[in-house]
Protein backbone atom coordinates (compact mmCIF):
# COMPACT_ATOMS: atom_id res chain seq x y z
CA UNK A 1 0.00 0.00 0.00
CA UNK A 2 1.39 3.39 -1.03
CA UNK A 3 0.11 6.46 0.81
CA UNK A 4 0.67 10.21 0.96
CA UNK A 5 -0.28 11.99 4.17
CA UNK A 6 -0.92 15.72 4.38
CA UNK A 7 -1.75 17.94 7.34
CA UNK A 8 -0.46 21.19 8.84
CA UNK A 9 2.07 21.22 11.66
CA UNK A 10 -0.07 20.71 14.79
CA UNK A 11 -2.72 18.54 13.10
CA UNK A 12 -1.50 15.22 14.54
CA UNK A 13 -0.17 14.07 11.16
CA UNK A 14 2.96 12.49 12.66
CA UNK A 15 0.93 10.53 15.22
CA UNK A 16 -1.59 9.26 12.65
CA UNK A 17 1.23 8.45 10.21
CA UNK A 18 2.97 6.30 12.82
CA UNK A 19 -0.27 4.38 13.51
CA UNK A 20 -0.81 3.65 9.80
CA UNK A 21 2.81 2.67 9.26
CA UNK A 22 2.64 0.16 12.11
CA UNK A 23 -0.69 -1.32 11.09
CA UNK A 24 0.28 -1.92 7.46
CA UNK A 25 3.98 -2.57 8.07
CA UNK A 26 5.08 -0.15 5.41
CA UNK A 27 8.05 2.23 5.34
CA UNK A 28 7.45 5.64 6.88
CA UNK A 29 9.39 8.11 4.76
CA UNK A 30 9.62 11.59 6.28
CA UNK A 31 11.42 14.19 4.20
CA UNK A 32 12.29 16.30 7.26
CA UNK A 33 13.86 13.28 8.99
CA UNK A 34 15.99 12.46 5.92
CA UNK A 35 17.29 16.03 5.89
CA UNK A 36 18.03 15.99 9.61
CA UNK A 37 19.88 12.66 9.31
CA UNK A 38 21.98 14.05 6.48
CA UNK A 39 22.82 17.16 8.50
CA UNK A 40 23.79 15.01 11.48
CA UNK A 41 25.87 12.70 9.27
CA UNK A 42 27.71 15.67 7.76
CA UNK A 43 26.83 14.74 4.16
CA UNK A 44 27.01 17.09 1.19
CA UNK A 45 23.23 16.99 0.89
CA UNK A 46 22.90 17.90 4.55
CA UNK A 47 25.24 20.87 4.16
CA UNK A 48 23.23 22.14 1.19
CA UNK A 49 19.88 21.70 2.96
CA UNK A 50 20.85 23.14 6.34
CA UNK A 51 20.81 26.83 5.45
CA UNK A 52 17.24 26.58 4.13
CA UNK A 53 16.00 24.48 7.03
CA UNK A 54 17.53 26.87 9.57
CA UNK A 55 15.66 29.74 7.94
CA UNK A 56 12.39 27.79 7.95
CA UNK A 57 12.30 27.79 4.14
CA UNK A 58 11.75 24.90 1.79
CA UNK A 59 14.88 23.18 0.51
CA UNK A 60 14.99 23.76 -3.29
CA UNK A 61 13.08 21.26 -5.42
CA UNK A 62 16.28 20.41 -7.33
CA UNK A 63 17.65 18.85 -4.13
CA UNK A 64 14.43 17.53 -2.57
CA UNK A 65 12.71 15.87 -5.53
CA UNK A 66 15.58 13.52 -6.57
CA UNK A 67 16.28 12.73 -2.92
CA UNK A 68 12.73 11.47 -2.35
CA UNK A 69 12.41 9.67 -5.68
CA UNK A 70 15.68 7.84 -4.91
CA UNK A 71 14.47 6.95 -1.45
CA UNK A 72 11.26 5.39 -2.80
CA UNK A 73 13.33 3.05 -4.97
CA UNK A 74 15.10 1.45 -2.03
CA UNK A 75 14.35 -2.11 -1.00
CA UNK A 76 12.41 -1.32 2.17
CA UNK A 77 9.81 0.49 0.04
CA UNK A 78 8.90 -2.60 -1.99
CA UNK A 79 6.18 -3.56 0.50
CA UNK A 80 4.68 -0.07 0.37
CA UNK A 81 5.34 3.35 1.88
CA UNK A 82 3.76 6.23 3.70
CA UNK A 83 5.25 9.48 2.52
CA UNK A 84 5.09 12.36 5.00
CA UNK A 85 6.34 15.91 4.36
CA UNK A 86 6.56 15.48 0.58
CA UNK A 87 5.19 16.87 -1.69
CA UNK A 88 5.03 20.36 -0.18
CA UNK A 89 4.18 22.19 -3.43
CA UNK A 90 2.59 21.37 -6.81
CA UNK A 91 5.92 21.03 -8.61
CA UNK A 92 6.95 18.27 -6.20
CA UNK A 93 3.50 16.69 -6.58
CA UNK A 94 3.71 16.65 -10.36
CA UNK A 95 7.26 15.21 -10.27
CA UNK A 96 6.14 12.46 -7.89
CA UNK A 97 3.10 11.55 -9.97
CA UNK A 98 5.21 11.41 -13.14
CA UNK A 99 7.88 9.22 -11.51
CA UNK A 100 5.26 6.83 -10.08
CA UNK A 101 3.44 6.59 -13.42
CA UNK A 102 6.71 5.88 -15.24
CA UNK A 103 7.63 3.17 -12.74
CA UNK A 104 4.12 1.66 -12.85
CA UNK A 105 3.62 2.28 -9.12
CA UNK A 106 0.10 2.99 -7.91
CA UNK A 107 -0.62 5.65 -5.33
CA UNK A 108 -3.40 4.01 -3.32
CA UNK A 109 -4.41 6.73 -0.86
CA UNK A 110 -3.99 10.41 -0.18
CA UNK A 111 -4.85 11.29 3.42
CA UNK A 112 -5.58 14.90 4.24
CA UNK A 113 -6.01 15.97 7.86
CA UNK A 114 -8.04 19.17 7.70
CA UNK A 115 -7.55 21.64 10.53
CA UNK A 116 -8.19 25.34 10.84
CA UNK A 117 -4.99 27.38 10.97
CA UNK A 118 -5.76 29.07 14.29
CA UNK A 119 -6.50 25.73 15.98
CA UNK A 120 -3.32 24.18 14.56
CA UNK A 121 -1.27 27.08 15.90
CA UNK A 122 -2.86 26.86 19.34
CA UNK A 123 -2.22 23.15 19.48
CA UNK A 124 1.48 23.64 18.83
CA UNK A 125 1.76 26.47 21.35
CA UNK A 126 -0.32 24.57 23.91
CA UNK A 127 1.88 21.47 23.89
CA UNK A 128 3.55 20.80 27.26
CA UNK A 129 6.21 18.23 28.14
CA UNK A 130 6.16 16.31 31.40
CA UNK A 131 9.59 16.31 33.07
CA UNK A 132 8.99 12.72 34.25
CA UNK A 133 7.84 11.10 31.00
CA UNK A 134 7.80 12.25 27.39
CA UNK A 135 4.79 10.03 26.74
CA UNK A 136 2.48 11.86 29.12
CA UNK A 137 0.49 14.00 26.70
CA UNK A 138 -0.52 17.45 27.95
CA UNK A 139 -1.93 20.35 25.97
CA UNK A 140 -3.47 23.44 27.54
CA UNK A 141 -5.71 23.93 24.48
CA UNK A 142 -7.02 20.35 24.11
CA UNK A 143 -9.68 19.52 26.69
CA UNK A 144 -9.10 15.74 26.54
CA UNK A 145 -5.47 16.12 27.58
CA UNK A 146 -5.57 19.39 29.48
CA UNK A 147 -3.04 19.44 32.35
CA UNK A 148 -4.26 19.74 35.93
CA UNK A 149 -4.25 23.16 37.53
CA UNK A 150 -2.25 23.64 40.69
CA UNK A 151 -1.27 26.81 42.56
CA UNK A 152 -2.28 28.96 39.59
CA UNK A 153 -0.15 26.93 37.13
CA UNK A 154 -0.31 23.60 35.34
CA UNK A 155 1.04 20.15 36.26
CA UNK A 156 1.06 16.86 34.33
CA UNK A 157 -2.43 15.35 34.12
CA UNK A 158 -0.97 11.82 34.33
CA UNK A 159 1.55 12.02 37.16
CA UNK A 160 1.34 15.54 38.60
CA UNK A 161 4.93 16.27 37.47
CA UNK A 162 6.19 19.68 36.37
CA UNK A 163 5.63 20.75 32.79
CA UNK A 164 7.89 22.52 30.31
CA UNK A 165 7.36 23.81 26.76
CA UNK A 166 9.64 23.25 23.74
CA UNK A 167 11.24 26.53 22.67
CA UNK A 168 10.37 25.99 18.99
CA UNK A 169 6.73 25.35 19.91
CA UNK A 170 6.58 28.86 21.38
CA UNK A 171 8.15 30.63 18.39
CA UNK A 172 5.10 32.17 16.75
CA UNK A 173 7.14 33.52 13.83
CA UNK A 174 8.52 30.08 12.96
CA UNK A 175 5.06 28.48 13.27
CA UNK A 176 3.55 31.14 10.99
CA UNK A 177 6.29 30.64 8.40
CA UNK A 178 5.61 26.91 8.17
CA UNK A 179 1.85 27.42 8.12
CA UNK A 180 2.21 30.03 5.36
CA UNK A 181 3.70 27.33 3.17
CA UNK A 182 1.14 24.70 4.13
CA UNK A 183 -2.03 26.78 3.78
CA UNK A 184 -0.99 28.41 0.49
CA UNK A 185 -3.59 27.00 -1.91
CA UNK A 186 -1.93 28.48 -4.99
CA UNK A 187 1.74 27.59 -4.68
CA UNK A 188 2.04 25.69 -1.41
CA UNK A 189 1.08 22.37 0.09
CA UNK A 190 -2.70 22.78 -0.19
CA UNK A 191 -2.14 23.30 -3.93
CA UNK A 192 -0.33 19.94 -4.05
CA UNK A 193 -3.28 18.34 -2.23
CA UNK A 194 -5.60 19.86 -4.85
CA UNK A 195 -3.43 18.42 -7.62
CA UNK A 196 -3.92 14.88 -6.27
CA UNK A 197 -7.66 15.45 -5.74
CA UNK A 198 -7.92 16.52 -9.36
CA UNK A 199 -6.03 13.46 -10.65
CA UNK A 200 -8.29 11.27 -8.49
CA UNK A 201 -11.40 12.92 -9.94
CA UNK A 202 -9.96 12.25 -13.40
CA UNK A 203 -9.67 8.53 -12.63
CA UNK A 204 -6.10 8.01 -11.36
CA UNK A 205 -7.42 5.29 -9.03
CA UNK A 206 -6.09 7.06 -5.93
CA UNK A 207 -8.61 7.28 -3.08
CA UNK A 208 -8.77 10.55 -1.17
CA UNK A 209 -9.41 10.37 2.58
CA UNK A 210 -10.31 13.68 4.18
CA UNK A 211 -10.25 13.71 7.97
CA UNK A 212 -11.45 16.33 10.40
CA UNK A 213 -8.43 16.91 12.66
CA UNK A 214 -10.43 18.59 15.45
CA UNK A 215 -11.35 15.48 17.53
CA UNK A 216 -8.76 13.64 19.65
CA UNK A 217 -6.07 11.27 18.35
CA UNK A 218 -8.22 8.20 19.08
CA UNK A 219 -11.31 9.45 17.21
CA UNK A 220 -9.26 10.58 14.22
CA UNK A 221 -7.38 7.28 13.99
CA UNK A 222 -10.61 5.26 14.27
CA UNK A 223 -12.09 7.20 11.37
CA UNK A 224 -8.89 6.78 9.40
CA UNK A 225 -8.73 3.01 9.96
CA UNK A 226 -12.36 2.62 8.94
CA UNK A 227 -11.74 4.53 5.72
CA UNK A 228 -8.51 2.71 4.88
CA UNK A 229 -9.94 -0.78 5.08
P1 LIG B 1 9.57 18.78 8.71
O1 LIG B 1 10.28 17.93 9.70
O2 LIG B 1 8.69 18.00 7.77
O3 LIG B 1 8.85 19.91 9.33
O4 LIG B 1 10.72 19.42 7.77
C1 LIG B 1 11.76 20.20 8.33
C2 LIG B 1 12.34 21.08 7.24
O5 LIG B 1 12.89 20.29 6.18
C3 LIG B 1 11.33 21.99 6.53
O6 LIG B 1 11.08 23.18 7.26
C4 LIG B 1 12.04 22.26 5.21
O7 LIG B 1 13.08 23.21 5.36
C5 LIG B 1 12.69 20.91 4.92
N1 LIG B 1 11.76 20.06 4.11
C6 LIG B 1 11.10 18.95 4.52
N2 LIG B 1 10.36 18.45 3.52
C7 LIG B 1 10.55 19.25 2.46
C8 LIG B 1 10.03 19.28 1.13
N3 LIG B 1 9.16 18.36 0.71
N4 LIG B 1 10.46 20.26 0.30
C9 LIG B 1 11.34 21.18 0.71
N5 LIG B 1 11.85 21.24 1.95
C10 LIG B 1 11.46 20.29 2.83
Describe the structure.
It is built from 9 helices and 10 strands. It is an alpha/beta fold and 229 residues long. The chain has a domain at 2-115 and 185-228: P-loop containing nucleotide triphosphate hydrolases (Rossmann fold). The chain is globular, with a radius of gyration of 18 Å. The model has no long low-confidence stretch (mean pLDDT 94). The chain binds adenosine monophosphate. Adenosine monophosphate (AMP) binds next to helix 2 and helix 3.
Report a brief summary of the structure.
The chain has about 230 residues and is an alpha/beta fold. About 45% of the residues lie in helices and about 15% in strands. The strands form three sheets. It has a five-stranded parallel beta sheet, with helices on both faces.
Amino acid sequence: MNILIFGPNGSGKGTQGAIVQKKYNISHIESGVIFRENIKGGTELGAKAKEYIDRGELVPDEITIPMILDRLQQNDCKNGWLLDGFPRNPRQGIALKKALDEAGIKLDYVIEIVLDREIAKNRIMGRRLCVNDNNHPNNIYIDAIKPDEKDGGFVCRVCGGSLTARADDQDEGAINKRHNIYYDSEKGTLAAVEFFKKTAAEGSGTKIIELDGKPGVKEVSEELMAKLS
